[in-house]
Structures
1.
Amino acid sequence: MQKTALVCGAGGFIGSHLVKRLKREGFWVRGVDLKYPQFAPTEADDFLVADLRDPVNCRAVVDRGFDEVYQLAADMGGAGFVFTGENDADIMHNSALINLNMLDACYKRNVKRIFYSSSACIYPEYNQLNPDDPKTSEESAYPAAPDSEYGWEKLFSERLYLTYQRNHGLTVRVARYHNIFGPEGSWRDGREKAPAALCRKVAEVADGGTIEIWGDGKQTRSFLYVDECLEGTLRLMRSDWTGPVNIGSEEMVSINQLAQIIMEIAGKQVNLKHIPGPLGVRGRNSDNHLIMQKLGWKPTESLKTGLAKTYPWIQAQVDALKKK
C-alpha cells in the first residue's frame, strides 16, 4: 500500500522541497499552507490553502491516519524579521496556535508519527557571545535564555510535542534547524536569511560596487544546504530516536567570509559597507556530535558547494526582475 505524508508549511521553502523529496520516494503527499509555493508549482498530490491557526482547518487537513506528518508551518524569517521586535506578538501567537491545533488534530485522528522543525534559535544567548566558540550542544539548551521571542516559542513547542508523546502516545521527532538555504526560498521580501540576502546584493551590483552588511560582519554562523537538511530530517523521522537534535553544518564562517565566498562564485569583487541592523547572537554553529552518535550521519556538503547551486538561481531572479 502506498504510504501517505502530510507536509504543513508546504508552500514555504523547506516544505516545498520536502514535498518533492517525498514524491521521489513514492509517497502520496498532501501539502497545506496559507499560500502555494512561490517559485515553482507544488508537486503535492493534494494541496490545501488553509490557515492552520484555525482548529477546524487542522481537523479538515488531518482527515486520515497519515503515515508521516511533517510540521514545518510557522511565522518566521531572517534577522530582519525575527530580531527587530516588531513581529514578536505575531510570531508567538501564530506559531503556537499552529502547533497546538496540529498536535490536537493528529492525536484525535490517531496519527502516530509527527516531525517538528525547531530551531537553533532556542539556544541560550549566554553561550553564543563569543563568535569564535559558540556552544550549541543539545543539552546546553537549559537553563533557557533564547535571544528572541521566536526562539522562546520554538522551545515551548518542543516541550509541547514531547508532552504529547509522553501523555498521548504520539511518536514525535524534533530537529533544531541551523540556517537552511538553497534555491526557491525568500530572497527579497524581508524574510530572507543571510545567504539569500547576500547573493541578491552581490547579484544586483556591478564588479567594484558596494553592498551593505549589518554590523561589523564578524558575527559567525553556519549554513546548511536544503538537500542535506531533508536527508537529516528523513533519517531522524524514520529512526527510533526522538531528539531534539541539531541538523546543521559545522562549517562556521563570519558574515564577511560568507560575502567573500559569494563574490568568488559570482566572479566579481565588491566592497562591504557595514551599517547598523538587527544581528541576533554573536556566534552560532551546529554541534553535530549527537546526530553522528545516534544516526551515524551528519551533513558533509561544503558551504561553497551549496552556494554554487543557490547563487545562479538568485541571479536569475534578479535578472528577471530587471526586465519587468
Note: The chain has ten helices and 13 strands.
2.
Amino acid sequence: MRTGLGRVAVSAVSAAVMTTACLDDNPWFEEPTGSDSGGGTTMIGATTTVTPPPATTTSGSTTDEDDTEDDSETTDTTSSLTTTTSMTGVMSVCGDGIPEGGEECDEGADNADDGACTTACKFPACGDGLLQAGEVCDDGNPAPDDGCVACQVPRTCAEIHMLDGNAPSGAYVLDLGGPDPVAVYCDMNTTGGGWTVIERSALDDPIGVALFKDYPVNLDQPGEAPFRLGRAAMELMLANTTELRIDCGGADYLLTSSLALFEGEQGGATCENAAAIMYKEASLKGYMKTDVLLCTGFLGAEDGCEGAWYIDEGAQYLCQSEPFPWEFMIPVTSQSADTFAVDAAVKDTQDPVHDCHQDGAVRVVMLR
C-alpha cells in the first residue's frame, strides 16, 4: 500500500483542524480566498472547507520512497476491441461478446459485416452500406433515384413505387437488363402511379415518328419534351410491363396492352398503315369506352403521314369498323381530326378542344 500520499493528506487535515480551533475565538476573522491551482483551504468566517489534493496518475514506476508496488500493476495495455460509452455511462466494448451500452448485438469473434451482427455491433439493416443476404444493393443512403431503392435494383417505375410509396415523380435510374442503366422519368401520380415514360412530345415541338421505329431523342433529359427512349430499351421494358397509356395530362386518354406498342411495324410505309387496337379504356371529351376496338394509325408527320398514333373518327373504315365510335354516328371532334396525335395533320377545333390539341399540350406515352 502506498503511504507517501497518505501522509500528505493527513498532515493537511491536521493543519486545517488546528487552524479552525484558533479561529473559534475570533469569528470575524476572514481568511483571503486563494486561487492556487494546487488546492488548499478556503475559510470565510468560521467555516472551513478542506479541498483534497488532485488525483495523480502514474505510469510505470513511482519515485515515492515508500511505494513498493510492482510496476506491472500500473501498466496500461491497449486492446484491439472498440470501446464506446453510452448515454447511460456504461462502457461497451464491441467484440467482447457482451451486448451492453449502445450495442444492439455482440457475438464476439463471430461479428461480421455480412453476418447477423456487424463489426459495429449493430443488427444488419438496409441503408447501412453493407451488402447483406436478400439485398441486391446497399449504397448507404435513402435516395430512391440513384438506381438502388430499398436495397433492390428496380427494373420499372412500378417497382420503385412499390418499394418506396413516397417516391415522387421525377427522373430515376432503371436496370432494364441491358448493358447499362437507363435514365427515365417516372410518373408517380397518374392513376395510382408507377408509370415509366417512354416518350414525351409537345404540340409545338412534336417528335412525329411512329412508336415502332428506333428514334431516341434527348436520352439525358427524360423529364423534358421532346424525349424518347430507343427501341432496344422499350423492348426490354415489355418483359416487365402490361399496360400502355397515352394522354396529354387531362381527361382524354387511351389505355391498352403494352404489347400494342410496336403495332404497325409490319404494315409498311403507306399512310393507310392502321390496325384495330383493343383499348381497355378510351376517354375523349367526356365519352368513355371500355374494351373497345378503335382503328388506329401509326405513322407520323415525320413519316409523311397524318400523325404518330392517331384516331380519326371518320377513317374507321380503314379497319372495316363503323365510323364515329365515341357517339353513334355523331362526330365528337372536328372533321378528320387526328386525335391523340400532337403531330396531327388536322387538329381538333370543336369546343371543347381535345386535350392533345390545346395550346401548350404535351403528349406522354408510358408503360406500367
Note: The chain has a mean pLDDT of 82.
